[in-house]
Amino acid sequence: MTDFFVHHGMIYGWAWFLATIIGILVIALPLMLAVAMVIYAERKIWAAMALRRGPNVVGPWGLLQSFADGLKVFLKETIIPTSANKGLFLIAPIVTFTVALIVWAVVPFAPGVVLANVNVGLLYVLAASSLGVYGVIVAGWASNSKYPFFSALRAAAQMVSYEVSIGFVLITVVLYAGTFNLSGIVTQQVGFGLGIFNGFGFNLLLFPMWVVFFISSMAETFRTPFDLVEAESELVAGHQTEYSSMSFALFWLGEYANTILMCALNAILFWGGWLPPVNWAPLYVVPGIIWLLAKMCLFFFMFGWVKATVPRYRYDQVMRLGWKIFLPLSLVFVFLVSGWLMLTRYGCDNLTYSHQASAVAGPVCAGNPR
Hints:
This protein is mostly helical. 63% of the residues lie in helices and 1% in strands. The C terminus is likely disordered. It is globular. The protein has a two-stranded antiparallel ribbon with strand order 1-2.
């Protein structure tokens, strides 16, 4: 797009700036619309599993219910507690919402369709998404109320616990793909499963890591059964207790934007991203973005399914799962994946000894990498 503006006589700096702004709007505006629609879809999923109707009054089939709720929240008064730190109290939801949007800058929707195709895209995702906890912590502390403060402490402990295991899970993906670039990770999954299927998830070594990543992504976004940060039974509503109007809505939008992001990462890192499930030429006629959206919808349905059917854990169970099960399991699989790659991808056809080198370093591998 930058080249298009330059070709029509615009200075390169302004052309790059305008192209970047347009790219941001092309991602952000549909994302906001998607958030409204996935809220409606999730409510329909819960209703179907509870044998209820769900939203069905506002608009055809209730499709405008989310927009009616947004208008209602927009028209409400913003109330700031007297003893709260007003500056931080107002900044917290902005931080949560902004962080939820900036991660999408490196998410590839199709070949070449990405705002910033950086080589360290996966590291950027980890760094940016980990900033989301600051919005929760600041909201809990600035409210000057004990329940939001307890929620902030829970959020910090929970996110740190599951980010550790997520980090080791992503190491296994990077080892197989050989790159931190998200587009590169997708292209490395072509025909990965026996030359037939596209995706790392078809690998017996990486499928357990996807299960760990899927569950950890629910914990990272405070989804049921890991919503101890917002547990109304003991924390009223957690860090959102003192919030109202649009400040509350920003938390809500940020939470669902993060949920959609985790659905996208599940598809991109393990299930082929924009690639069709089967490496069959006629399937590539379908645009890649359609495949990616279909996979995201499947994972979002699974998120809603879990929320509708699985009861909330106790906090000690949440911590035990992260530190005593997921962390050791991910460490073991890092070892297994590394060993498997050394034997198959980086192994030697024959092992010879160099007399000069063996005196210093022992055996030297002289074969060619497979």
